[in-house]
Amino acid sequence: MGVSVSACSTDDSKGTIVFGETSWTSTEAPTRIAMQILEEAGYEVEVTLLDQPVIFQGLGDKELHFFMDAWLPYTEEALWAEYEDTLQLVATSYENVPLGWVVSSYVEGNSIAELAGKASEYDGEIVTIGEGAGIVELSKNVLEDPNYDLDGFELVPTSEAAMLSVLETKINREEPFIITGWRPHSMFSRHDLKFLEDPNGHFNYDNVYVLSYQGLEEEYPEAFEIMSRWSIEVEDLEAMMYEYEHNNVPFEESATQWIENNREKVDQMLGK
Question: Measured in Å, how far apart are the chain's first and last C-alpha atoms?
Answer without folding.
Answer: 36
